[in-house]
Amino acid sequence: MADNQKWYFAYGSNMLSDVFIRRRKIQPLRSEVAVIKTHTLCFNIMGVPYTDPAMGGLRPAEEQDLPVYGVAYLLSSEDMRQMIVSEGGGIAYKTELLSATLQSDGSEVNVNTLMGRHIIPRSYERLPSGRYMSLLIRGASEHSLPDLYQKRLLSQQTFIPGQGCRFKVGKWLFDGFWQRVAYWIEKGVGKFKDGEGNVPPWFLLVFDFLLWTMWYYHDYAHGVIWGRGDGLNRK
After folding, report:
1. Binding site for substrate: residue ranges?
2. In the list 38, 86, 223, 235, which could disulfide-bond 24, CB 3.0-4.6 Å?
3. Looking at the annotation, which residues are catalytic?
């Protein structure tokens, strides 16, 4: 492996070639099914209520947890940068170096993978959308991940939008403001990213303020009036 090449471990939507290769325009030099035995899949990346409440993340595995399987991609330094940019320039995730086992020959490799910037308790995790989970399920099937792991993905509970008029009006009102905020955040990532694909610290402070303002407003005001947008029944 050349000095300018690194392994990247994908466990979410980037497992799917339609997302990673076609949409994100990244060309892996090699791909292998792999497992990180020390960590497990969770949904602790806070998204946008009513649309994608949570995305996949990693947390240290406990005794009862299934280890996380995914795809290890060997990337050039430029494609690694492009991957970081495509995942938001480090606003939701941070890059961690972990050890993964390649399933083809049992060898251990160091992989760069993405973990949540914020420490979210299990009790505070939200539900992923059906749209998001379908990407993980298709990616796992495409790369023939172990049957037990595919069953775990298929059994994951997802956020199901309400069908009543009250809920639909609430979603429309919420999206009218917060989807615009999300759009401008995405534009800001493209404008302020550095040579490694990451945004500056001040941008992270602005993002965090907006993220938690949005979720507190959802949990204690909007969701109470119009119905929750994360699939949970918290009081």
Report:
1. 8-13, 132
2. 86
3. 87
